[in-house]
Amino acid sequence: MRIGLFATCLGDTLFPDAVKATAILLTRLGHDVVFPPGQTCCGQMHVNTGYQREPVPLVRNFADGFGDASIEAVVMPSGSCAGSVRHQHRIVADRYGDAALRAGVDAVAAKTYELSELLVDVLGVTRVGAYFPHRVTYHPTCHSLRMLRVGDKPLRLLRAVEGIDLVELPGADSCCGFGGTFALKNAETSTAMLHDKTDNITATGAEVCTAGDSSCLMHIGGGLSRIRSGTRTLHLARILAATRTTPDVLTEASV
Questions:
Q1: Rounded to an integer, what distance in angstroms lies between the CA atom of residue 141 and that of residue 215?
Q2: How many CB atoms lie within 10 A of CB 246?
């Protein structure tokens, strides 16, 4: 399958290893991964903050860049960005776009997936040849859980990883408190939610907390480092891309 890879803003600027791991994993599984040039922000942060007209050029750029008929699927290591493309882009196009934009948005949204969705639902795999001999707990991010409804797909992938010790996270479906600008506008509430999340992660004794969104892992990772928990954060793509011959090297800032 020819798969278009969308890096996302955080992937491009702060956590490129998650994007690289996605490409490495899909290539290892025998797929042709392409990176359309001219990628920009998907516009999620604009819509979430109430600026729905401003992201029209970003939405149009996404639809044009990934609308190439030769691209059979679009993947991104982010549940929130996948949710934005599948749901928010149509809202923007309906309110401020034209017929061509609406058609382009619908065509691309229909073939856009978060990584675990693509692997399980489209490619039909759960065992991807990964090896990760560490104690791991999984945090289901809000957009992947509530907007995309990925369910247990990430857990099914993790359970099939050789060598992993996967432990259940108490209160897993509770928000970590990030929410983009929510963490800035409602800092005290965000901090309280983060405190509950880091307490639950620490209680598992996990070496690694993983998730499908670098943004949530950035927030959680900051909280874990401040309490010196010893637990590190690592994107799901990096665990799935790790093998016996090419292991992922854990670092203090791994996301």
A1: 9
A2: 11
State how far the Cα of 180 lies from the Cα of 168, in Å rounded to an integer.
26
In the predicted model, what is the mean pLDDT of residues 57-75? 96
* Residue in 41, 78, 48, 44 with CA at minimum distance from that of residue 62: 41
Say how far apart CA 136 and CA 156 lie, in whole Å.
13
pTM confidence score: 0.92
Q: Is the pLDDT of residue 254 over 80?
A: no
Residue 124: exposure state from Cβ atoms within 10 A (0-12, 13-18, ≥19): exposed
Average model confidence (pLDDT) across the chain: 93
Cα–Cα distance, 136 to 115 (Å, whole number): 19
- Residues 6+ away with beta carbon under 8 Å from 204: 135, 137, 167, 168, 169, 170
Q: Which pLDDT value is given to residue 252?
A: 40
Token pair listed for 255: 């996301």
Residues 6 or more apart from 110 whose CB is under 8 A from it? none
- CB–CB of 51/88 below 8 Å? no
Nearest one of 6, 4, 15 to 216, comparing CA atoms:
15
Asked if 218 and 10 count as a contact pair (C-beta separation under 8 A), the reply is yes
- Quick check: helix, strand or coil at residue 114? strand
Q: Is the pLDDT of residue 43 over 50?
A: yes
Structural element, H or E, at residue 4: strand 2-5
Q: Calculate the CA 146 to chain-centre distance.
A: 14
Read off the pLDDT of residues 109-134 as tens digits, 9 standing for 90 and up.
Answer: 999 999 999 999 999 999 999 999 99
Q: Strand, helix or coil at 117?
A: helix
pLDDT score of 179 more than 90? no
CA distance 44 to 200: 29
